[in-house]
Amino acid sequence: MTTIQERVTTTAPVVTRKKRDWSVAGRIIILLIASVFVLGPVLWTLSTSLRPPSESFKLPPAFLPLNPDLTSYTQVFKQLNIVLLVVNSALVTGLIAVGQMVTAALAGYAFAHLRFRGRGALFSIVLATMMVPAQVTIVPVFMLIRGVGLSDTLLALIIPAIPTAFGTFLMRQYFMGLPGELAEAAAIDGASPWRTFRSVYAPLAMPGLAIVGILAFNFHWNEFFRPLIMTISEQNFTLPLGLVSLQGNLGTGSISVVLAGVVLSMIPALVVFMFGQRALQDGLTAGTGK
After folding, report:
1. pLDDT averaged over the chain?
2. Residue 290's pLDDT is what?
3. How many whole angstroms separate alpha carbon 24 and alpha carbon 97?
4. Residue 234 pLDDT
5. What is the pLDDT of residue 257?
6. Given this model, what pLDDT does residue 37 score?
7. HEC secondary structure over the chain
8. Burial class of 192 by CB neighbour count within 10 A (0 to 12, 13 to 18, 19+)
């Protein structure tokens, strides 16, 4: 005769397995819904850019183009100096990303491992600047840039963006995760603080620096507000600013031309993400699973 204890022991694994199956199914459904919201607009943008301009507002809309062509892309190249815009954007975002990696590494190491008076207060001020929107500081920054004669130049976009409060905070946390005994051992060997940073800590902080560089590139590649204020001449326009010139196509119903420009602007950022994905994952997971 089966006892109550035996029945509980027999049915418990079945109940646990059913709960686990429902949990997995629920996660898959949530991921599918999230994928639709995230990838849906991207796929619709790509699909619409491959339609002829005459079918931009066709009703009912078709998710996939029936007769895909590249007319909209050729129109983008005719209406914009796309090469110049890409070169300007690559130069600005590349130098900003490298500059932020250097300044964030130096500042983060100083706040993490160097002892000096006012370190805590100074770090608090750095963190407070993260709460100040760019719209608040754009006027004094513009006046300063104009005062030194750099207005309407690419340097007006690059120099003010190199100091980074978020990157400093991120690298400080990263350096604090590295053992302090390394600095003590280097000091015993006679290494200066600069030599300790350059030869010991900086190589270990490469995953963190990769995060700073990739995030800086993606943010400033799509930046629109500062280039709109700082540049006037078309030869200094970046890609987001140049895409505004395609707005006139909206009045003629050729939204596919506008979206073709958007797709072209996404390609460099996707390439950077594809090549930096491994470094980004290593940096985000460093120290969490060891």
Report:
1. 84
2. 46
3. 40
4. 86
5. 83
6. 87
7. CCCHHHHHHHHHHHHHHHHHHHHHHHHHHHHHHHHHHHHHHHHHHHHHHCCCHHHCCCCCCCCCCCCCCCHHHHHHHHHCCHHHHHHHHHHHHHHHHHHHHHHHHHHHHHHHHCCCCCHHHHHHHHHHHHHCCHHHHHHHHHHHHHHCCCCCCCHHHHHHHCCCHHHHHHHHHHHHCCCCHHHHHHHHCCCCHHHHHHHHHHHHCHHHHHHHHHHHHHHHHCCCHHHHHHCCCHHHCCHHHHHHHHHHHHHCCCHHHHHHHHHHHHHHHHHHHHHHHHHHHHHHHCCCCC
8. exposed
- Which token pair is 98? 């490298």
In sequence order, the 6+-apart residues with CB closer than 8 A to the CB of 107 are 126, 168, 171, 172
**Shortest CA distance to 127 belongs to which of 177, 169, 163?**
169
* Contact predicate 73/262, CB 8 Å: no
What pLDDT digit, counting tens, does each position of 123-161 carry? 999 999 988 888 888 999 999 999 998 888 999 999 999
> Which tens digit of pLDDT belongs to each residue from 44-85?
888 888 887 777 666 666 667 777 788 888 888 888 888 899
> Per the structure block, which two tokens stand in for 195?
């030599």
| Average pLDDT value for residue range 86-90 | 92
